[in-house]
Structure formats: structure tokens, C-alpha cells
């Protein structure tokens, strides 16, 4: 499963690491847009296989942030 950005913004903080177990609705990445923090959560439980972004990166809506298996 891919976790994608629901809006454009900067990656403010990555809350998990590759190999971490995540639960459904657990925050994975926090975006910053227009001085607001927008948490992006996993849609289902699994293991973070790969992080596709780094803190400080700019992402557009629909960009893949992480892959969960």
C-alpha cells in the first residue's frame, strides 16, 4: 500500500522509520502547508517498507510518501 500526500506542502517531520510496524490511522509523516501541520496517517496496519521522502522535501498532492506492506 502506498501512503500519499493529500495536499502540496513541505515534509516537516517523518514520524516512523523503515522497518517500523504501524497501525491503521497511525501518523507516518507530518506535512507543513500555509503554516499548518497536516498529519498523514497509514490507511491500514503493516510494516514501513520504504520511505520515499526526507524531512524538508516539497511534495505535491498524490506524491508517494511511504510504502507499507
UniProtKB/TrEMBL annotation:
Q: Which residues form the Lipoyl-binding domain?
A: 1-69
Question: Which keywords accompany this UniProt record?
Answer: Biotin
Residue ranges crossing the lipid bilayer per the database entry: none
Q: Look up the domain of life of the source.
A: Bacteria
Query: Would the keyword Glycosyltransferase be found if you checked this record's keyword annotation?
Result: no
Q: Which residues form a coiled coil?
A: none
Query: Pfam families given for it?
Result: Biotin_lipoyl
Question: Record keywords: Repeat included?
Answer: no
CDD domains named among the record's database cross-references: biotinyl_domain
Which PANTHER family does the annotation name?
Answer: OXALOACETATE DECARBOXYLASE ALPHA CHAIN (PTHR45266:SF3)
Q: What is this protein called?
A: Acetyl-CoA carboxylase biotin carboxyl carrier protein subunit
- Source organism: Virgibacillus halodenitrificans
